[in-house]
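Fold this complex.
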Amino acid sequence: MRIYKAKDYKDMSRKAANILSAQIIMKPNAVLGLATGSTPEGLYAQLIDWYQKGDLDFSKVISVNLDEYYGLSPESEQSYRYFMNHHLFDHVNIQTENTHLPNGLELDVKKEVARYTELIRSFDGIDMQLLGIGHNGHVGFNEPDTAFETQIHCVDLTESTIEANKRFFASADEVPKKAYTLGIKSIMQAKKILLVCSGADKADILYRALFGPVTPEVPASILQMHNDLIVVADEAALSKFPEELFD
Ligand code: F6R
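Structure:
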């Protein structure tokens, strides 16, 4: 595991964008596992900036998103497809047909899980998986006590995740109760993982995830076992970590 300490959110976004860009430069047809949420917004904005300056080319990049709400259409402003279009895809030269998310409108779970599993398999896996972390240690929509063996599946969202995500909806009642997500095992199969984290409110969970026991109670703790985990976090999020780690 390599941990890069950033000064603040802006610096974290730039450092993480550098790592993702290096992946694209080294492998122009890289398969990127992408995430939504507030944390990667600055990173995506930085990638757009470098693209506009002519420093990055997404024409061969393939993206596979981590998760999508069950039952939401891609046009819904709260869907993760909408988020990705708005925060990245519409502003760079990635080909729409190369951008993939679970299909929230497919209500046949078995069918959608099989389709998305086969899609990722057909790409020979994910080269770099970008992840954020939830306050309860969730990654993707894998909530505490999800078995580490879980592959792509459809989950019932916990109250705490519905609570955390209601900020994007008119009310908690409108937050979908289910979502498709890559499972812990599918995430661990990515060749590289880039975990981004910002803010004092994430300091405890980040420490537990990276230095606490590896346990399904903290889904992100399994990331300690990945052989190519890169963490980029700001000072506030790393405030519980011993200083000497960063000498
Ligand atoms: C997003 C996702 C979630 C978020 C996590 C952190 O696709 O799967 O696991 O990464 O909830 O969200 P933020 O960055 O909003 O704190």
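The chain has one domain: 2-245.
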